[in-house]
Amino acid sequence: MKNRFLRGVFIILISSSDVYAQKSGNQTSVFFTTKEKDTVKNGKTFNEKDTTGSKSLENRIKPIQANFKRINSMTKWTSVKKKDIEGESAEGGEAAFYYTDKGLEKIIARHYGEMGQMLIEYYLMNGQLSFVFEKEYRYNRPLFYDKKVMKDNNDTEAFDFNKSEVITTRNYFENGNIIMINNTTGGGFNISADYLHEQKKSLTERFKKLLKLAE
Length: 215
Prior knowledge:
Helices cover 22% and strands 40% of the residues. It is an alpha+beta fold. It is globular and about 55 Å long.
């Protein structure tokens, strides 16, 4: 796949034979997007139903979407375990593991850093990873960058969470492989030939580490 630079919202469709990207623009039939909620604060993702231009792919993601909706509609859990995440940054992070009598259903992990924070929600189906929702906040300035530091550096901005760049990514998994990625960003996003491989590797490695943390 060649490098492409798209602005706004884009969706990556992955089939057995090719990988291609479709820009939003006037092609509103390609996918459906609802208003974002601040999931870092309330710990909930919104029930989005991504659609595609491929009927066969839509049929493949329907059970993933149904499973996501089922899990997110649950209000009672057999148990919820909370663990601290250490080692990834000085600010650390935290994770919550949600169980029913059938086993682990969902993991919500928050990773904090000096220049931003990341919320990642993992959803399981039949014991396997099926859907991953990511919401990344890229701060306008470091956390410590108050008005005094701003003035000392002859700058015009101090740290302001509301000025963060927000990037959301929804990853659909089937049999351990990513079959679709939907990414929403206020600026631009560069898709490289290695992006899909790196995305799958990063998410699966993080997921495995969390599973060990829960033991």
